[in-house]
Amino acid sequence: MSDDPKEDKPQNKFLSGLGGALKNIGDKAKEIDEKHHISEKTKQVGDSVVQNTKKAGGFVNEKTKEALGKLKKDKKDGGEGGAEKK
Question: Would you say the pTM of this structure is higher than 0.70?
């Protein structure tokens, strides 16, 4: 038994045990990550998603500009929006 009266309280024993359990969980997670490269793979997937989202955004932006340009040209030429002249 310790001379510290705080150490004998159930709450302190619980927190001490919880700290040990959390450390064990952290150690096991690190071990699994190192074995299966989960963090590395997750980062690669995230980077790929960001890159593909940027590409898709650029594509949508380009197509929107093309469509607006065509609408403006058609309107200037006397057309009805995107309708072709006969």
Answer: no
